[in-house]
Design brief:
By secondary structure, the protein is of the alpha+beta class. It has a domain at about 85-170. The chain is about 30% helix and about 35% strand. It has 2 helices and 7 strands, in the order βββααββββ. A hairpin with a 4-residue loop joins β2 (about 15-20) and β3. The N and C termini lie far apart (about 140 Å). The model has no long low-confidence stretch (mean pLDDT about 85).
Amino acid sequence: MNPLPPGWYPDPHFAGMLRWFDGQQWTDRRAQAAAPAGGRSSGTRAVVIVLSVVGGFLVLSILAAVAIPLFLNQRSKAGVADVAASSCQDVAADAVALSQKQATGNQIPLMGLTNSVVVDDHRATVRLPPGGTTAFVMSCRGDDVWKDGQSSVVTVKVYVTSEGKQQLSVSWEAPAPPTT
């Protein structure tokens, strides 16, 4: 009595091949074994899914690591663009206007600021500072005339706030006493 019915069975001598058994003996007929109908096993599918998710997360992390600093740098540059584009002539006009607007009582406002030159310049590298602080942009020095007719040397320092607004600090040197 033979336990195997006639049919195609895996060939024990050639991996990936089938061999015909006629019910009594093995024949010389062979055929290529077909791929399993189910494809990958569930364990293999789980590994592929996990690796795909991890790989996708890694790609997103790398993109974020590159894109976020670029975005913040561009936003910081845009936030200081107006202030950084100022010239000493612009700063002088702003300082005179501010002095005239804020002068009260017996305070003597600036009437003009000429021959302004850059003393210290950070316009090319300035970025928006953290909230509630300021960043130095540049300083300009020039000759001023006050409303009372006196003149002196004025230094105007320009800062940018964390909101991208210009802030000025004006200081002056006392006029030299007349020489006789």
